[in-house]
């Protein structure tokens, strides 16, 4: 599990000093540019997989000779106020910063959902069904799935305590997602956020 922006797992900025949050905004913009709609128009490379959680999309066996697989489109509009489309500052200017979360690419991995995992208050979730929809899995690897886009989840912290360093741990819940004490990014990440006003 990884997040953007990621800079030593710390996000510290002052809402009144644009230069303190501009680097985060730029990283967000650069990362999300690969999800621009105009880059997903080719119907030979992409297909619509719906904007509701679905089931795994069978694109044949990994070893079959079907060649290159189509990738699911993922529109930035799904990320709501964290898309950068209406708010080019991704909430940073208002002290309500967005984080974009993704599962790293693991060939042939099929995440299993665990329902009713506890949610932290005052965080808004955006994406498809507030999670990683199964129809985006499995991933067939760079050669067979060159245009693959990971589904994203955007978190917006809408009511952070200002001028205080906050330590936040994000975990992805799933029946077959495990945590490793030695690897901070296996199934989770820690981040420190401080918003000064």
Protein model, in words:
This is the non-catalytic component of the active enzyme, which catalyzes the hydrolysis of ATP coupled with the exchange of Na(+) and K(+) ions across the plasma membrane. It is found in: Cell membrane; Membrane. InterPro entries: Na/K_ATPase_sub_beta, Na/K_ATPase_sub_beta_sf. Belongs to the X(+)/potassium ATPases subunit beta family. The chain is mainly beta and 197 residues long. It has one helix and nine strands. It has one helix at 18-32; strands at residues 2-4, 10-14, 46-47, 71-72, 98-102, 123-126, 153-157, 166-171, 188-196. It is globular, with a radius of gyration of 17 Å. Mean pLDDT is 86; it is low at 114-121.
Give a brief rundown of this model.
The protein is mainly β and 197 residues long.
Strand order of the largest sheet: 1-5-7-6
| Beta-strand proportion | 15-25%
Oligomer: single chain
Distance between the termini: 30 Å
**For the CA atoms, what is the radius of gyration?**
17 Å
Largest sheet: 4 strands, antiparallel
Which segments are poorly predicted (pLDDT under 50) over 5 or more consecutive residues? 114-121
- The helix/strand class is mainly beta
Helix content: under 10%
Give the overall form.
globular
* Sequence of secondary-structure elements: EEHEEEEEEE
On the 0 to 100 scale, the average pLDDT is 86
Counting H and I runs of at least 4 residues, what is the number of helices? 1
Number of strands: 9
């Amino acid at each position: 599990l990884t997040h953007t922006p990621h800079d030593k797992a710390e996000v510290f900025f002052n809402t009144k000093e644009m230069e303190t949050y501009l680097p985060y905004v730029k990283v967000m913009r650069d990362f999300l540019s690969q999800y621009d709609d105009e880059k997903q128009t080719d119907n030979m490379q992409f297909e619509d997989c719906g904007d509701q959680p679905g089931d795994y999309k069978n694109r044949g066996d990994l070893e079959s000779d079907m060649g290159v697989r189509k990738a699911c489109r993922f529109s930035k509009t799904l990320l709501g106020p964290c898309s950068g489309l209406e708010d080019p500052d991704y909430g940073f200017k208002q002290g309500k910063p967005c984080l974009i979360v993704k599962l790293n690419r693991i060939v042939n991995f099929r995440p299993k959902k665990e329902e009713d995992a506890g949610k932290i208050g005052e965080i808004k979730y955006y994406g498809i069904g507030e999670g990683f929809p199964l129809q985006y899995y499995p991933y067939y690897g760079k050669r067979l799935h060159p245009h693959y886009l990971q589904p994203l989840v955007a978190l917006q912290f809408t009511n952070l305590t200002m001028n205080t360093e906050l330590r936040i741990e994000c975990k992805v819940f799933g029946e077959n997602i495990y945590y490793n004490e030695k690897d901070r990014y296996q199934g989770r990440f820690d981040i420190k956020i401080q918003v000064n006003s």
